[in-house]
Amino acid sequence: MKTGLMTKDEINKRLEYEMKLKGESDNIRPPSFLTKKQRVFFEGIVNYLETSGILSNLDVYILAQTAITIDRIQTCETHINENGVVDLDGNPNPHIKIKNSYMKEFFRLCNELSLSPQSRAKLANMNYVAEAEKTDPLLSILGGDG
After folding, report:
1. CA–CA dist 96, 79 (Å, integer)
2. Are 136 and 146 in contact, with CB atoms under 8 Å apart?
3. Average pLDDT, whole number, for the chain?
4. Of 14, 54, 119, 122, which one is least surrounded by beta carbons within 10 A?
């Protein structure tokens, strides 16, 4: 990844390559193996990210895994709430360990989908720089394409 200022040609080529690698986004649907609840999570994530334009058909699997992970975290949390963090003998609820494992997976998936605040800020900054460099103020004043 190049850092620093980029020329208009470099920005345009990079955007072109990114669009080619991204692929189509006309078939982002929940896979049939998801439960009803997992489909709701899947569609919610897609709806949240729709305006960003970062999703493509290639992301269906990672979206499905994210939906499954959220569902399983919530299931673990329900078991923890119902049974407490320890049993009568003082043993930890096994759902805590399972939940922690799913939380690690969730954060990894969030990073892949740019769902973390840090990832979104990085994307926003890259988009801002690209937009700012698309318009050359001098060319705009002169009536050029800038």
Report:
1. 9
2. yes
3. 82
4. 122
Cβ-Cβ contacts under 8 Å for 108 (sequence gap 6 or more): none
Please list, in sequence order, all residues whose beta carbon lies within 8 angstroms of the beta carbon of residue 3, skipping any fewer than 6 positions away.
Answer: none
> What six digits make up the tokens of 93?
């609820």
Cβ burial, residue 102 (10 Å; 0-12/13-18/19+)? buried
Provide the Cα torsion 106, 45, 50, 117; round to 10°: -40
pLDDT tens-place string over residues 36-76: 999 999 999 999 888 877 888 889 999 999 999 999 999 99
- Distance from chain centroid for Cα 119: 8
Number of other CB atoms surrounding residue 70 within 10 Å: 20
| Among candidate residues 72, 3, 85, the one with its CA nearest the CA of residue 34 | 72
